[in-house]
Amino acid sequence: MTTLQISSSLFRYFFLTLCLFAIPSLSSDSDPLQDFCVGDLKASPSINGFPCKSSVSASDFFFSGLGGPLNTSNANGVSVAPANVLTFPGLNTLGLSMNNVEFAPGGVNPPHSHPRATEAGIVIEGSVFVGFLTTNNTLFSKVIQAGEMFVVPRGLVHFQWNVGKVKARLITSFNSQLPGSAVLPSTLFGSNPTIPNAVLTKTFRTDDVTVNKLKSKFAV
């Protein structure tokens, strides 16, 4: 191989490396271009969040909404207190958010996904069965205790189940200021307008009676 050929190969390798390192779109949220941009929730959001407030104060950078206890008296026995850009505008453009998730004994955070973020969490109290499913339908799961951590790759369907006899609590974090949540049962059976029965009966290999019963449980 000649010197010219070697130089050409190195240049192509160097150029490819630069391209791979210079693709910010692979991250969840865009990088901020200033120290902070406290969101003005009265304005319409843009691609990278809300416009910045014209005047800020220290209180814009502190949030007390992750405390508990939360009311878990519902069908799933779970309640979520979010700290995202909609509840804590100081997170605007910063690419992160958190949740406080509390479970009654036996409570389930039903199968769902976060289309815009990877999720990491830690058990604060209790015993929680955490699982996620890959795109080839492999389940990765484990019962974890207080002080143990888990991670769910971006966009994958996952769930949590309190397998203990007392309440359980998680603190979760996301690499997006607004990760979004598509909860499978309510998405499929509680949409507005509703998904046609013909689609759901064929998909789940069942009948109209069963589909209508499920729809009645998730009607908005």
TrEMBL record:
<dbReference type="Pfam" id="PF00190">
    <property type="entry name" value="Cupin_1"/>
</dbReference>
<dbReference type="InterPro" id="IPR001929">
    <property type="entry name" value="Germin"/>
</dbReference>
<feature type="binding site">
    <location>
        <position position="119"/>
    </location>
    <ligand>
        <name>Mn(2+)</name>
    </ligand>
</feature>
<dbReference type="InterPro" id="IPR014710">
    <property type="entry name" value="RmlC-like_jellyroll"/>
</dbReference>
<feature type="binding site">
    <location>
        <position position="119"/>
    </location>
    <ligand>
        <name>oxalate</name>
    </ligand>
</feature>
<feature type="binding site">
    <location>
        <position position="114"/>
    </location>
    <ligand>
        <name>Mn(2+)</name>
    </ligand>
</feature>
<comment type="similarity">
    <text>Belongs to the germin family.</text>
</comment>
<keyword id="KW-0325">Glycoprotein</keyword>
<feature type="binding site">
    <location>
        <position position="112"/>
    </location>
    <ligand>
        <name>Mn(2+)</name>
    </ligand>
</feature>
<keyword id="KW-0964">Secreted</keyword>
<keyword id="KW-0732">Signal</keyword>
<keyword id="KW-0464">Manganese</keyword>
<feature type="disulfide bond">
    <location>
        <begin position="37"/>
        <end position="52"/>
    </location>
</feature>
<feature type="domain" description="Cupin type-1">
    <location>
        <begin position="64"/>
        <end position="212"/>
    </location>
</feature>
<keyword id="KW-0479">Metal-binding</keyword>
<dbReference type="InterPro" id="IPR011051">
    <property type="entry name" value="RmlC_Cupin_sf"/>
</dbReference>
<dbReference type="InterPro" id="IPR006045">
    <property type="entry name" value="Cupin_1"/>
</dbReference>
<feature type="binding site">
    <location>
        <position position="158"/>
    </location>
    <ligand>
        <name>Mn(2+)</name>
    </ligand>
</feature>
<keyword id="KW-0052">Apoplast</keyword>
<feature type="binding site">
    <location>
        <position position="114"/>
    </location>
    <ligand>
        <name>oxalate</name>
    </ligand>
</feature>
<feature type="binding site">
    <location>
        <position position="109"/>
    </location>
    <ligand>
        <name>oxalate</name>
    </ligand>
</feature>
<feature type="binding site">
    <location>
        <position position="99"/>
    </location>
    <ligand>
        <name>oxalate</name>
    </ligand>
</feature>
<comment type="function">
    <text>May play a role in plant defense. Probably has no oxalate oxidase activity even if the active site is conserved.</text>
</comment>
<dbReference type="GO" id="GO:0030145">
    <property type="term" value="F:manganese ion binding"/>
</dbReference>
<feature type="signal peptide">
    <location>
        <begin position="1"/>
        <end position="30"/>
    </location>
</feature>
<dbReference type="GO" id="GO:0048046">
    <property type="term" value="C:apoplast"/>
</dbReference>
<keyword id="KW-1015">Disulfide bond</keyword>
<protein>
    <recommendedName>
        <fullName>Germin-like protein</fullName>
    </recommendedName>
</protein>
